[in-house]
Each structure stands twice: as structure tokens, then as C-alpha cells.
Amino acid sequence: MKAILYILAILVTCGAGYYSFDHSVKFKDQQTKRLTAIETNRVVTANAEGTEKELRDEQGVLKAVKDVREETTQSIAALKSNEIGLKRQVGELDGTLEEQNAELSALEKALEEVKLVLKELGDDITIDNLSEKIDKITEDKKALERQLEDKETLVAAADKRLTGNKAEANRITDKKLERSVRMARNAMEAVITGVNQDWGFVVIGAGSNTGFTPQTSLLVKRDGRLIGRVSPSAIEPTQTIADIELESLAAGVRLQPGDRVILAKPESH
Hints:
By secondary structure, the chain is an alpha+beta fold. It has helices spanning 2-121, 130-186; strands at 190-196, 201-204, 218-222, 225-235, 240-244, 260-263. It folds into 3 domains: 1-115; 141-186; 188-263, Thrombin, subunit H (Beta Barrel), CATH 2.40.10.340. It has a 6-stranded antiparallel barrel. β1 (190-196) and β2 (201-204) form a beta hairpin. The protein is elongated and about 230 Å long.
């Protein structure tokens, strides 16, 4: 019985030892696995951190690349704008150059013309002494202008005298003409062309064209003798109606066609 218990105790001890050994082996395996997992995790974490760092670095590089690309795009746009401006400036410069060339050609042509003019003016005139010649010509011109002004003053005075003389001559001529007209009117005779004894008026073959006015007083004569007086009452250009002044007629005298009329008051000369 003791032997059996002893064997059982040995078996139990062996079993416990085996269990303990197996458990130890398993623990070591688990420990190894755990350490391996920790190391793996550490490595993975480190790798992950490196990857994140690389990603951040790549993102930074990408941002820098994007910034550079944006700056490059803006630079390209600015260069294009400058190119357009430069092309415009080049076009303007080309136009200015053409204008300057045209002006230069015109100046060269004008210079040739000036040379021809100088040659015509004389061999002693050159571009170098042209200014002096121009000054002399200017002085000569001023002298001639002063002479011309003096002559114009004399001419103006002569014109004034001539105008006065003409006015006086015209006045004298008008006066002579007026005198001649008055004399002609004094010598004027007109003929009675009609008589109305009932109404006491006559028709004379002369009117305002001859110088008759309502104030004109007319004498009637026959065979060189005065026989009466008439006064104009209606005057037309070529004939006059005149009232017979009956009190001026001699006894038994009656006016008749053919009698002649003259001015009663000759105008003074």
C-alpha cells in the first residue's frame, strides 16, 4: 500500500513536473511570440512613421512643385503679356521709324531744294553764312517796308486830296447840273392839249417828268402874249391837270388847245 502511494506520489510529482515544464515551454513560446510581435509591431510602427514622414515630405515636395508650377504659370502669363506689349511697342517703334525715315527723306529733299535756292541766290551764299544773309535780307526788307510805308503815307495824303478834289468837283458839277436843270425848266414850255370850260380846268402835255409840282405856278401865253394863269391840281408823269385862274383872264379871253404854258416864277440861277 505504501508502495502504491509512493508510486502515485512519484507519478503526481512527475506529472506536476511535466506540466510545469510544458507550461514553461509554452510560456517561453508565448513570450517569444509576444516579443516577436512587439518587435514586429515596433518595426511596423517605425516603418509606418517613416512612411508618414516620407508621405509628409512627398506632400511638401508636391506642394512646392505645385507652387513652382503656379509661379511658372504666372511667369508664363506675364511673359505672354510682356510679349504682347513688346510686340505692340515693336509695332509702334516700326511706325515711328517709318515716320522718321519719311521725315528724314523730306529733310533731305528740303536740303537739296535749299541748296538749289542758295545756288540761285549766288555762289557766295552757303548754309554756313545763310543766317547772316537772312539777317541782311531782313534788314533790307525792313528798310524797304519803311520806304513803302512812307510812300503809302504820301499816296494816302494824295488820295485824300484827290478825294477832296473829286468831292469838290462833284459838288461843282452837281451845282452846274442843277443850275442847268433850273435854266432848262425856266426855258421850258408845254402845250395845253385839252380844255374844259364848264369845269374850269385844262390838260397840259407835261408832268412830273418835266419837273411840275403842285406848287408850280404856270402862265399861259398865245402868240407871245400872256393871256392868263393856271395852277396844277393833279400831276402825272406825262401830263398835268391845272385849274384855270379865271380872274387872271382878260375880258372875253378863253383858253384853248394849242396855248402854251411857261413857269410863272423862273428859278434863280
